[in-house]
Amino acid sequence: MAGKVTFFESSLSFPSSRNTEGAESASADTPRFVPLPKAQHELDGSAQAQDQISRCCNKLRSLRASDSATLKTELNSLFDQLISENYNSGNHDNIHPEVVCEMLMHASRLVPLSQEHLIIKLSQLIHQLLNQLQVIVDEHALDVLVSYCTRALRTCSSWTHPEVLLALSSLVYGNGSRCHRHLPELLGLSGILVNYGDPSQPDIELRRSAVHCLANLCLSVPGQPYLEEPYKGVCYGILLRTLQSPKPPDVEDIVFCTLLQSALKGTQYFLNGGKWKAVSTQDLGTLLALLKRFMFYGLPGISVEMPQVLYPAPLPQYETIPAAKPELSQDSAAQKKTAGSQQNKKRKSRGKGKKAGAEGKNDDDDHISGHLKTGGSGVDQSGWSLGSQSASVTSPSGVTPQLYPSWKKGSSDSEFSDPEGGMQTKLRLYQARVRQSALQCFLAVVKCVEKRILYGYWSSFVPDAPGIGGPPPLTLLTIALKDPSPKVRAGSLQVLSALLEGSRQFLSTAEDTSAPRQAFTPFSATLAASVRELHRCLLLALVAESSCQTLTQVLKCLAHLVSNVPYNRLRPGLLSPLWKQIRPYVRHRDVNVRVSSLTLFGALVSTQAPLPEIQLLLQQPGSTSALSTPGISTPQELSHNWRLPTRRDGEASSPGGGVEGDPEGPCWMLQLCVSLVTQPREEPYSDSDAGGSSGASLEPLPIRLEALQVLAHLVKGYFSLVQTSLLELGQLSTRCLKEQEPSVQLHGTKLLEELGTGIIQQYRADANTTPSAKCVPVCQVVEFWSEVLAAPMISALQNEQHPTLQTSACDTLSSILPQAFSQLPDVMFVADTANAILTALDDRSPNVRAKAAWSLGNLTDTLIVNMQSVGLEFQEEFSDMLLLNMLRSATKASGDKDRVKSNAVRALGNLVHFLQPVHLGKPVFEQPLQEAMRALIDTVRGEATMKVRWNACYALGNAFRNHNLPLGSADWSKEAYSALSYVVTSCKNFKVRIKSAAALSVPSTRDRYGDAQQFAQVWQALAQALEHSEEMEDFLEYRYCASLRSQLCHALLHLLSVCQPNDLPALRSSLSDQSRPVLQGFLVHYLSNKGVTLVAGVDGAAGDEAGDHAVPEDGLRALNETLTRLKGQLEEAVLDSSEDLETVVNFLEDVLRNFEEVKESDSKVFSLPLSKLPQ
């Protein structure tokens, strides 16, 4: 077939020798062709081939254009010699691309357009050299040779055009955007390719070659722009019409298959050129209908009648399999053709013949690999009757065929020795390539079309019922279960995986836990049925598949499915069969299958964890044979008895069973993953494992990494099941950190991080109570971290060559339980950790700096915990110089990107809180302290993200808790209060307002609020914020209103409790105007516990963040104490201040009186039903 060898492969890859550098035109200075030096061990045949090519090229370069017969003879001879070479043999890898380009350009100058036989040979040579040597010509050679080909197509006889188009297709391969000068002539209104590629073109060879050219024009190699409009649209229109047109009656099936394959590949390249645009000339439904039709093209037993367009809600009649007439079957039509008719239509060029042969080699085994197992009842495992009367293929004997492919049943080699049998086999091979190309095109559609649009066609490609009692639906799973080609089956699974990837939001509506409705079936139930059918069919594919490559795709598809399905909304029982079925594949003989099975296990233990069904499965005992004997427990390998190693004494011989492990022992999956990481590899395995291991005796590296990832998922989702093996997992992580392979070190640190996080979450859940017996004891946590946090962890933190490893190590340090930190060996460990973090905080990588800031914030949290639990001893042992460096580094990081700044300001608040008089009295701390406080103030006032500003407000409040800080007298105090007052009244994010109000209520004494003017400013800001607390720009902030009002009321009552006579005039002014009833109403509401009721409606995250306000009982106690104190002052007040004091006292008395009335009213309402009870 015309085109490149890689054209019909599922992926395009070029050897490193393929070069796109520019080539110089022929000149006296151009170096003569000299092959690169060969290694001494290469065969003599390679050197001879190089010598022959060298002689031919040099001879060709020495010729000059003339009309002599001698020149024609020499060119004929040279072209024949060059064409006869097999450039795929590997003996020509050292031919420079620029030499090829220069030689072809020189040859084009020697062959005039009047010598049509020479033009044929030159075209064949262009195609063969560029195709087999994998050369993309440079721009100058492209311009020269494309011009030559277009002139030949305009001038020469039509019998030369297929060969010229063949050469043109090789020239424009990946060069569509660089052909801009020739595009009008090729793709204009009367362009060459437009005329030859049109479905009305009677010459199928011309049409096929032109469509091939169009496909190669649409292809763009990495780094090159795509074909521009409107020519890109012209190509798509011709390709689409080609797919829509029927097969001409006089065209052979194989030839038509190659035409379809070119059109499908061209469509795939077009789709790869960018996002799908819904325009009048590009209808998605039309394209999907065509792709669905060709996904089943030539599939035995199926005759597809598809509509012209698929709609988001396809009609049921489009999904049927009508009984096909034998005379319409393409296979039958192919059988009617005699061997002579197939052979008489010979190819016109050797280039095409060689191309077809090369392509035939790639997929020779596609149609041989059987994968279906059938039972004695004649029904295969997908539920299809093998004797279905709807089969559309007529067997040669005239007997109604079964769905099971007839050529896959036991037959001797002699059946395919006759020409007709060979052509049938070849036809099925080419039909399989069409189906594979259609699936690859569909995969491109999935990648370029928005998922929300594509999911409208979900029911056209994914079944929602088994189809019992009628013909099954034609879906992607039909191909996965029924197609005889393993590559096509794998292609359908790749498309399904792409559809499932990122489908969580779409599938989240699936639900079948409620009672079924009789009147109608809701969409949620239909989607749930589709999910169940996906599980059923993919399990069947898992059992039936024999190809290791396709089996890998089945496991990957299942992993995508498991990761996106809302199992908590579905009836349990979907995961148990899958869990039990995949366990043996962990010891499969193929390394890729083993990796994919571990990936699937990782998806199972991470999806919506913890799931009760998965928890029960994890607690089941493990099977000794299933976990230790490689490659014997899967259905596909039961016959491979020669692979069985010597059985241990007492070991069960059943392939799927074995001696059950101790149910009281560690989780079997944990044991499995630990053994895969640490234990020597077991034989036998496939040869594909060789070279993939980080050590000669260990498992291949991909398996070890995947096992570590499964462990991390297991720890994250089901920590309670693995906490008994905490020390063992710590030893495993330490071992990983000591290895030389950075990827193993990285996964080891991630496992440590999940272990630390799991411990912290256990203690956080019991924060308000004494830690329960289920929590890991602190002494064991200390033992765990003492062993882990040694030299390997410090080395990982200081590994500047691998920033990702540094980042992960920082995350690990941030997950140390604060209660255990003080019991670690000594404070020197804290110093070592802090120094490592400060080094990472100056890293060039933003990711490393962000993680280091997070670790620094957590480390300083630990400093505060130790300061409160250990006391002065811990603070005195901590190095002043290290504390100063931490303060300066955190201040510097607060000016970094928001991801870094968010945790840097948190660390600053902790460090300022940690400072003691011994530090504050030293001049060396004076300027760093001022810079730290100004950094916090600037961040509060700045334009950073709300998360950063929230952390900055929190940090200021944390700093205010340091009683040794000169708050109220320092220069920065006024700026700090001003910034918080500004935020509490004007910030559009209510969570930031809540945190700023909390910070304003932290100072415990009046002198820390500064002078009367500063105190008045804080009071007025809080009062104004409370008065306007229901005004918001974003309605989403409404859920935080109750928390904000509660915090503001608490802050106002706190200020009243510390106010002094000099503050009363400012208080009187705000309590004498129209604001008084509003403030009074909110305070009464807060004291009557109604504010707390509203706060309970806030979601968990918001409630945690907003949870700085005191309970109303504390506010009531503070109100009574304040009122008592002020009444005492009123009796002693002089005339000047009595009016201000009386106004404040009257306000508080009104609040207290109204509160009592509300409380009494509520008690009456509550007791009213009790009074009506019979006596």
TrEMBL record:
It holds the Pfam family HEAT. The keyword Metal-binding does not apply. Gene3D superfamilies: Leucine-rich Repeat Variant (1.25.10.10). Keywords: Repeat. Residues 344-355 have a biased composition (Basic residues). Residues 8-22, 329-340, 379-400, 625-639 have a biased composition (Polar residues). The keyword Repeat applies. It comes from the Eukaryota. Residues 433-614 form the DUF4042 domain. PANTHER family: HEAT REPEAT-CONTAINING PROTEIN 6 (PTHR13366:SF0), MALARIA ANTIGEN-RELATED (PTHR13366). This is HEAT repeat-containing protein 6.
